[in-house]
Every structure is written in structure tokens, then in C-alpha cells.
């Protein structure tokens, strides 16, 4: 993927509005608010799950959290706040802990995507293995032919004339 600050929209029938999903450094990033919206749970529930994920060392906080400055409208004025964004690893971990209809839908979706990627990867690996085996087989045949050509090429003997 290798996207830099790309935004995609995620929306299901259950969500009243779309969620802007940020793509950066080969992963997706959501804020705490967005994760709460995604799973239809209060921010405190999501925060508790995230704290447990880090406390249980399922994930390392420094590897899954990025802080970004975001401009927000507060009381009619623009305010810059540093907001924590959580990467796909953290979102998936929360998704497998949260108990909600949206959480279940997300788990089904994530499992299907993972299964598809694994199957496509398996099929691709099988094709690559077949190609590698064919190349090795062809290389061996070329070596055999080369050996046979060398073996059956008549060698010329040159006699040296000597003067006595």
C-alpha cells in the first residue's frame, strides 16, 4: 500500500455517518473517537480495552500509537489539539474485544479479508513454487544437453610436424 496521508471513507448501514480512515505508513489510523464510533461504544469502553491491550502486552503502545496535530472547532474558534491515532493492530485488537453488533460485523469483515489474503497468498505461493520448479527442471535439462553436446563433439587432434 505504502500510502502517505491518504484518506478513505468507511461506512456500514449501521453507522449514521462515514468514518474517515487515514492511510499512512502501510496501515490505517483511527482516533479514539473514530474507534468508538466504529464499534458503537463509549470512548471510555474503548479506552479501557486499549489500556488492557497495552497492560497485557498484547501490543506495544509506542509501536501502535501516533500523535497528530488536528485543528478542531471549539466554541466557534479553531483550536489545534494533539490527538492520538491508533493503527490497524490496535483497532483489530479492540474489535476482537468489543461486544457490539458493529464489533461483530467488523470481526466478520476482518476475518473474511484475512482469509482472502491468506488464500490469495497461498495460491500465489503455489504458482511461484511451480514456476521455480519448472525453471530448475529446465536448467537441469539445459545442463544435460550442454554435457551431451560436449561429449559428442569430435575432438580434433593436431599432429605436429617435426623436422629431422
Describe the structure.
The chain is of the alpha+beta class. The protein has a domain at 6-99. It has helices spanning 32-39, 43-55, 61-64, 88-95, 101-152, and strands spanning 6-10, 19-24, 27-31, 65-74, 77-87. A 5-stranded antiparallel sheet has the order 1-2-3-5-4. A hairpin with a 2-residue loop joins strand 4 and strand 5. Helix 1 (32-39) crosses helix 2 (43-55). The chain is elongated, with a radius of gyration of 30 Å. The protein starts with 5 loop residues before the first strand and ends in a 12-residue tail after the last helix.
Distance between the termini: 83 Å
Helix content: 40-55%
Q: Low-confidence parts, pLDDT < 50 over ≥5 residues?
A: 5-10
Strand order of the largest sheet: 1-2-3-5-4
Estimated structural class: alpha+beta
Radius of gyration: 30 Å
Element-level helix/strand string: EEEHHHEEHH
Mean pLDDT equals: 79
Report the major sheet: 5 strands, antiparallel
Shape assignment: elongated
Share in β-strands: 15-25%
Tally of strands: 5
User: Count of helices?
Assistant: 5
Quick description:
52% of the residues lie in helices and 23% in strands.
Please write out the topology.
Elements: E1 6-10, E2 19-24, E3 27-31, H1 32-39, H2 43-55, H3 61-64, E4 65-74, E5 77-87, H4 88-95, H5 101-152
Antiparallel strand pairs: 1-2, 2-3, 3-5, 4-5
Features:
5 strands; 52% helix; 5-stranded antiparallel sheet; 164 residues; alpha+beta; 23% strand
Amino acid at each position: 500500500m505504502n500510502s502517505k496521508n491518504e484518506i478513505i471513507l468507511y461506512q456500514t448501514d449501521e453507522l449514521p455517518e462515514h468514518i474517515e480512515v487515514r492511510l499512512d505508513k502501510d496501515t490505517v489510523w483511527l482516533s479514539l473517537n473514530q474507534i468508538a464510533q466504529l464499534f458503537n461504544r463509549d470512548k471510555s469502553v474503548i479506552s479501557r480495552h486499549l489500556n488492557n491491550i497495552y497492560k497485557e502486552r498484547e501490543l506495544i503502545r509506542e509501536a501502535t500509537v501516533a500523535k497528530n496535530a488536528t485543528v478542531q472547532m471549539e466554541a466557534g474558534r479553531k483550536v489545534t489539539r494533539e490527538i492520538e491515532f491508533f493503527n490497524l493492530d490496535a483497532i483489530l485488537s479492540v474489535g476482537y474485544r468489543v461486544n457490539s453488533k458493529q464489533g461483530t460485523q467488523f470481526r466478520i469483515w476482518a476475518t473474511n479479508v484475512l482469509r482472502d489474503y491468506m488464500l490469495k497468498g497461498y495460491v500465489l505461493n503455489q504458482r511461484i513454487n511451480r514456476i521455480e520448479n519448472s525453471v530448475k527442471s529446465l536448467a537441469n535439462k539445459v545442463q544435460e544437453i550442454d554435457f551431451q553436446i560436449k561429449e559428442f563433439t569430435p575432438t580434433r587432434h593436431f599432429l605436429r610436424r617435426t623436422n629431422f
